[in-house]
Structure formats: C-alpha cells, structure tokens
DNA sequence: TTATGCGGGAGCA
DNA sequence: TGCTCCCGCATAA
C-alpha cells in the first residue's frame, strides 16, 4: 500500500505488500517529479514489468537496488544523475522462427554488453535442427522506441517507472543467461571414462549443495554468496542448478503450484500470453490496459512465472477496472484466444500447471556449441520426471527452468546401455502415467505420436538434464530418428 | 567475459 | 534548448 503522507519522503518501515487497493492506484507521481510521494508500504519486486506502470520498492530490496529486470535492459543516459534510465534491447529470436516440438520458440536474452550482443547476433540457432540464425528483435514498444525503465532512489524507497509496452516476447530470464554462461565452461564428455569421472564430481558437488537447496524456496542467497559458489565451482555443471534455485527464490517464481493444476484466471493471466493483464490469485489489481500483442510462443519457464504481486496501476487516465470487469475481460480474452490459437496454445494454462519442465525437451534443443538451452518447456502431461521428482522431493517446488547437456556421443558404452535399459523400464512405467495424465488434460496436442516416437527410440544421445527440482540430474536419451526428447529416463542423480 | 553505470555526442522538434 | 537514443569507457564481478 502506497500512502501519501503529510511529510514527503517519510517512509514507514517496509512491510510486505498487501494486495493492491484503490488508494494505491490513486497515488499519482512521475519519476521526474521534483519530489516523489513518500510511501508507507512497498511493492513486491516485479522483474517483468510491462506497460506503463509505477512501482515503489523498499530500498533494501536487492533486486531493486540492482535495477534488475527480466527484460534485457541496457543503460541509457538521460543526463540526470538522480534517475537511472534503461531501455529495452528486445529479444534474440531465430531468423527461421523455428519451433521446438513442444511448440516453444527460441527467445534468448540479448547480452547487455554491446560487444557480447554483437557476437550473439548471427550465431546459429541453438536448435540443431534449424538452420536459422539468431537475430535481435528490437523493442519498439514505446512509440516506436524501446520501452524504458526509470529508477530513482529517494529516501528509503526505490521508485520504478516503466514507459511503453514491450512488443516482443520475453527473453529468457537473466538467471538463465548467467547459468548458461557458467555452464558453457562445461565441456562435452566424450568418453565413458570422462563421463564417469564427470558424473562422480558432479554428484559430489551436488551433494555438497544439497543442504542449501531445500531452503531455496524460502530464502535466497546473497549475491555475494552466490558469486562465491559460482567461483568455487565454476567447472561444475550442477552449480547452475543451485544458482537457478536461488534465482527462483529471488524472483518469486510461483504461480504454478507443484501440487496440481489450478486453471484460474490468475494462473492464466500470469502467463506470458497475457503480457498486459495482471491478475493475482486474490483478484487484486495487477492491471494494465493494453492487450496489444499476443505471441505465438509458449511461456518460458523462467520468463513467465514471476508472480510478483507488484501492483500495476495505470498511469494517466487509465483506471482500475472493477472486479467484474476484470473477470469479464478475462473471459473475453480467453474466448478470443481459444479461437485464434492452436489447440495446444489455447490450452496453455494447462501447461502452466507444470511443476517440472525438464522431461520433454526436444533433442533438437542441442546447442551447436555443445550446450543446448531452450526456454520452452513441456506440457505437464508429457512430463515424467515430475512425478518421480515429486515423489523424491516432497518439498519440491516449481522449477522455471530446464537445461540439458550432451555428455555422451551416440556411440555409447556398455554402462550407457545399462542406463538405457533402466531408462526403458522406467519409460514403460512412465508412459502409463502420461496416458493417465492425458485423460485428465483437455488439451489437444500430439501425444500419441510422441508416445510412438518414444517407444521407438533405439539409439540415443544422452543428456544430463537438471530439472531444477531437488537438484535431480537426469540422464536423458535422444533418439536420432526423432525430434523428440520426450521421455526422461529419470535416472536421478541426487545430491 | 559480461554487466553495470556514467558521460559525451548526435539527431530532432 | 530540451529531450531522445547511441555509443564508448571505466569498473566490478
């Protein structure tokens, strides 16, 4: 709750932000105001602010202090030392606009650094079945210019104002980029000996980290601590998992319950598909007026679930809709999308019930640089490891990320065959679970075909896949003849 | 190597 | 003149 006080710049002790109320949106201020209104309560951090909005964070909010954002924002000089201005760099997309079998598209995060960003452009699409190149889709969401974010610190608060509505998909979240960069140091293990050695080191490392991961959902590592971990284990792939867990906690990734599907407008509207309408489970405001764009893209795990309760109060003349209006708007939007989107997309909210995203990852998501990464994620019904992970980890929580790394060449060794056999056995069991899941999933996608492909896997690539849940590292197989990496052998490597 | 913040400078109304 | 964005540099991680 943001309250005006008689004495400007007097800030009450920070408390958790309650659901937005009417008084909250009545406060009118601009980042350029000589004096911004003091607040008594602060917003939760929202790293996917979109549309014209204003937020007030507590000065001790780490994300706010870092001026963090899910969007790729670069610094822009506005010749005002008291106000930091950032503009959006857009998103890196595949020039061929390829899609993963699960419907996800490639939408990487542009590097903030100009030099790094230049290197990104023109690179081959990480989808190995795609000959496209990465190219930047510039943000033109603010009157043809990039969307801008403004940060201003005043008193014990950090004021944030966004101008413009992003006209492009969300890039992968910052944590993903950082993790990938870290993991890029992990080299493909080309021999069984190397694999086993790598695996042993990996397991040891994960074991050492296990003690902290369970707290990831409740507490977050300080940036310094995370950096220490990163530095101390930069050569260890699983480090990213731990780091991602920390990031998840930092960014309040939620909105998708691991315990089950909740097809409420809240979940639906938190999706990337609804970039401009924000509903919270409690029906609070989180509203912005524009529904200007809708992308044919599955939500990125890391990108789509920052369920910050930060309030969107419309600027200028925009007014908060009443609750019935909100519901009506949701129904309209839902109806519209049901008629304009492919079936699996219109049923996207079902996907958002995923509590794990790793199991169905296309084998095509295999990087040309030995590291595959995609932001797309799989429908829950195709997710096999989720159930096992859930069983193995009662306190697991939704992971918004999934990455996998090729650690084997197709010519696997005997040990690999054993793993494959074990995976096959699990696969049969898992297929039954999938079928049951599909019965309960009124979303039409090509499950039977996928199952068939799964069952016909003969030779396979193997991947380590960290689903982010309980630091379980799965060995996954990729049939050469199939584009699908739909079955997670779920030979969990617990740590 | 990359993210971040600062500041110079060009373009435009 | 004021505002905008682009770009380069320095610094930190």
Describe what you observe in this structure.
The chain has 495 residues and is an alpha+beta fold. It has a domain at 174-254 and 353-479. It has 15 helices and twelve strands. It has helices spanning 22-26, 62-65, 114-120, 174-183, 192-213, 223-232, 239-250, 265-269, 301-304, 323-340, 343-346, 348-351, 385-392, 414-439, 447-455; strands at residues 53-58, 73-76, 83-88, 91-94, 107-108, 134-137, 148-154, 157-163, 372-373, 403-406, 460-466, 473-479. The protein has a five-stranded antiparallel beta sheet, with no helix packed on it. A hairpin with a 2-residue loop joins strand 7 and strand 8 (157-163). It is elongated. 52% of the residues are buried. It binds a DNA duplex (13 and 13 nucleotides) through residues 66-67, 74-79, 81, 84, 87, 111-116, 145-146, 178, 181, 223-224, 227, 230-231.
Short overview:
By secondary structure, the protein is α+β, with helices and mostly antiparallel strands. The protein contains 15 helices and twelve strands.
Distance between the termini: 42 Å
Total helix count?
Answer: 15
Task: List unreliable stretches of 5+ residues.
Answer: 1-24, 185-495
Q: How much strand?
A: 5-15%
Strand count, sense and barrel status of the largest sheet are: 5 strands, antiparallel
Which strands sit side by side, in order, in the main sheet?
A: 1-8-7-3-2
Tell me how many strands there are.
12
Mean pLDDT: 49
CA radius of gyration is: 22 Å
Task: Report the helical percentage.
Answer: 25-40%
* Order of helical and strand elements: HEHEEEEHEEEHHHHHHHHHEHEHHEE
Helix- and strand-based class? alpha+beta
Mass-distribution shape: elongated
InterPro entries: GCM, GCM_dom_sf, GCM_large, GCM_small, Tscrpt_reg_GCM
GO cellular component, one term: nucleus
Domain GCM: 27-183
Protein name: Gcm
């Amino acid at each position: 709750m943001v309250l005006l006080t008689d004495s400007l710049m007097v800030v009450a002790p920070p408390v958790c932000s309650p659901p937005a109320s009417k008084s909250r949106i009545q406060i009118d201020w601009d980042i350029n105001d000589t004096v911004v209104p003091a607040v008594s309560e602060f917003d939760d951090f929202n790293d996917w602010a979109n549309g014209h909005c204003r937020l007030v964070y507590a000065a001790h909010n780490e994300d706010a202090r870092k001026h963090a954002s899910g969007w790729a924002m670069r610094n822009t000089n506005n010749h005002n030392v008291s106000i930091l201005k950032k503009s959006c760099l857009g998103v890196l997309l595949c020039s061929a606009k390829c899609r993963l079998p699960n419907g996800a598209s490639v939408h990487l995060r542009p590097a903030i650094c100009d030099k790094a960003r230049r290197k990104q452009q023109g690179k081959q699409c990480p989808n190995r079945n795609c000959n496209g190149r990465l190219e930047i889709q510039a943000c033109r969401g603010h009157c043809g210019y990039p969307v801008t974010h403004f940060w201003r610190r005043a008193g014990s608060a950090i004021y944030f104002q966004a101008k413009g509505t992003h006209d492009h998909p969300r890039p992968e979240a910052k944590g993903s980029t950082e993790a990938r960069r870290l993991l890029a140091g992990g080299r493909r293990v080309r021999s069984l000996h190397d694999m086993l050695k790598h695996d042993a080191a990996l397991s040891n490392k994960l074991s050492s980290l296990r003690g902290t991961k369970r707290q990831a959902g409740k507490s977050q590592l300080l940036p310094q601590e995370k950096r220490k971990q990163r530095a101390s284990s930069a050569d260890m792939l699983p480090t990213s998992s731990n780091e991602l867990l920390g990031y998840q906690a930092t960014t309040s990734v939620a909105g998708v319950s691991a315990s089950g599907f909740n097809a409420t407008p809240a979940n639906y509207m938190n999706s990337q598909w609804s970039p401009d309408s924000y509903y919270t489970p409690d029906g609070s405001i989180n509203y912005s007026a524009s529904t200007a764009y809708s992308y044919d893209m599955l939500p990125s795990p890391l990108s789509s679930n920052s369920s910050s309760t930060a309030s969107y109060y419309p600027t200028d003349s925009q007014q908060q809709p009443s609750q019935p209006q909100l519901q009506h708007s949701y129904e309209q939007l839902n109806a519209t999308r049901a008629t304009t989107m492919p079936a699996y997309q219109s049923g996207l909210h079902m996907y958002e019930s995923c509590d794990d995203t790793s199991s169905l990852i296309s084998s095509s998501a295999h990087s040309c640089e030995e590291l595959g990464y995609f932001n797309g994620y799989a429908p829950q019904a195709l997710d096999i490891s989720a159930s096992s992970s859930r069983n193995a980890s009662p306190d697991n929580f939704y992971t918004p990320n999934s990455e996998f790394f090729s650690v084997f060449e197709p010519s696997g060794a005997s040990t690999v065959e054993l793993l494959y056999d074990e995976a096959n056995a699990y696969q049969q069991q898992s297929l039954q679970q999938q079928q049951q899941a599909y019965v309960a999933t009124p979303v039409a996608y090509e499950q039977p075909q996928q199952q068939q492909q799964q069952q016909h896997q003969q030779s396979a690539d193997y991947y380590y896949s960290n689903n982010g849940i309980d630091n379980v590292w799965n060995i996954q197989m990729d049939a050469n003849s199939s584009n699908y990496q739909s079955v997670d052998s779920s030979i969990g490597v617990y740590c």
